[in-house]
């Protein structure tokens, strides 16, 4: 039977204390001011959060087994307090570090990973474009190779951790040619921050995740050395799809954290808010909503940590890629949709107060929707699940 170990739970408590002490007191201000708390990144690095899936030779934890589950625990606990900080870690590892760790050369790993693991820098992942979201294969960004350099032209959209004062590199997909069947050859190329021709556009004015860093990127005659190719030429699309499989489990953990926060806030409010001379929680109209929250949290958490466990088992050769892919899609679609529902229920329980920004459920409500969109929409997850069933 699957269960978390004592070491996992002890680690959860460490991250919970960090979130309560260093994040919770400032959330409302950061959210209101759309402030990215850059100072937290090295603090998370000191806790080892960016290195949980990274070998010791690059400054990581070097865990023999279970590293991905530890990462999901950290994301859940940060997301329970603030989704913006949670996605900073999730994207920093899943979309920033993992592609370099999985596909990078020894030189690329030595150049970037130690600082990324320490939280001195952040990396971004440039896949989505203005006209290529779920259909990522329709990318229009192009890179041409000449005289030992890739010259990149195009644009990316909605890229996390791409414009911070700590961003060191963004890995982007680009068309590098055409295959014999006429389909585009897509490769992944690393573009260091500050490269001429690489422009970080102004930050988006978003519905939620206001303390997360998100920008559009433009490449105009942006030239990087040929050696900045990440992995094999023409394999960028496959590489990024694999990266997204892992990222979906991490987003599921972020959703679990949000649903858990809704459950805790709603339970406390139902006990302390009175109407008609008694706590509102004695009314079935409220108590049943809280009960539904508890069911969703437990189900989402079990699906998420099953997928994380399968990912860890895959790393030591005990599970298949197909099993992990299916579990990741199932966890992602259920957990994220549960989180969106949880915020709606919590806001309803809080009534008029739930519509006020002074109460956390208003922020929860705004933060939730993107969970059903990022790392593959709910529709894409259902498509993947159906394919996994042979349909």
TrEMBL record:
Q: Name one GO molecular function term.
A: flavin adenine dinucleotide binding
- Per the UniProt entry, the signal peptide is none
Q: What keywords are annotated for this sequence in UniProt?
A: FAD, Flavoprotein, Oxidoreductase
Query: Where does the chain cross the membrane?
Result: none
Give the superkingdom in one word.
Bacteria
> Which Pfam families does the protein's record reference?
Acyl-CoA_dh_1, Acyl-CoA_dh_M, Acyl-CoA_dh_N
Show where the Acyl-CoA oxidase/dehydrogenase middle domain sits.
125-221
Looking at the record, the residues that make up the Acyl-CoA dehydrogenase/oxidase C-terminal domain are: 234-389
Residue ranges annotated for the Acyl-CoA dehydrogenase/oxidase N-terminal domain, each copy included:
5-120
**Gene3D superfamilies registered for this protein in UniProt:** Acyl-CoA dehydrogenase/oxidase, N-terminal domain, Butyryl-CoA Dehydrogenase, subunit A, domain 2, Butyryl-CoA Dehydrogenase, subunit A, domain 3
Q: Which cofactor does it need?
A: FAD
So what family is this one in? Belongs to the acyl-CoA dehydrogenase family.
What's the protein name? Acyl-CoA dehydrogenase
Per the UniProt record, the lineage of the source organism begins with:
Bacteria, Bacillati, Actinomycetota, Actinomycetes, Micrococcales
